[in-house]
Amino acid sequence: MRGIYKVLWFGRHSPSKEQVGALETIFKDNSIEVVHLSKTFNSGKEVVEAYKDYNCDDLVVILPYHMIQEVIEGGVKPLRCIMRRKFTEDSGINNGVKFEFLGYERLEEVKIKSKTLYRKNRKGEGTMDDDEAYNLVMRGI
Predict the structure, then answer these.
(1) Does residue 40 register a pLDDT over 80?
(2) CA–CA separation, 87 vs 91, rounded Å?
(3) Could you tell me if 84 and 102 are in contact, meaning their C-beta atoms sit under 8 angstroms apart?
(4) For residue 44, which of 19, 31, 71, 100 is within the disulfide window of CB 3.0 to 4.6 Å?
(5) Quick check: 1 pLDDT over 70?
(6) What is the mean pLDDT of the chain?
(7) Burial of 59 (0-12, 13-18, 19+ CB in 10 A)
(8) Which one-letter DSSP state was computed for residue 15?
(9) Radius of gyration of the chain (CA)
């Protein structure tokens, strides 16, 4: 007997038939129920709360990196659609851009290493180097 595998789809657009079909392939011992949630959240913590409130088994997200990290820190390793941008002749649809679904990946960690090139100080002025910016961040400024 197949169980129901409930997936919270967090994004502006509902999943395509192909995307749902891929979930059915991944979780083949279950029937897939997708709960689409198109809502603006302020933090990854709010996303995790919604995931728990809807009592879902998995989560598909389209979020900024810092919010994905908050979701992971909240104990949920979400799925992310792998998409390819394709340019079309029809500029009337999404300015000539079409997205092709390629698959899913499980997000386990978000790690970005960067060097600050410019940051405003509290007065809204100036260019500073990485060490100065780091010191401001560490002091909560």
Answers:
(1) yes
(2) 9
(3) yes
(4) 71
(5) no
(6) 85
(7) buried
(8) P
(9) 19
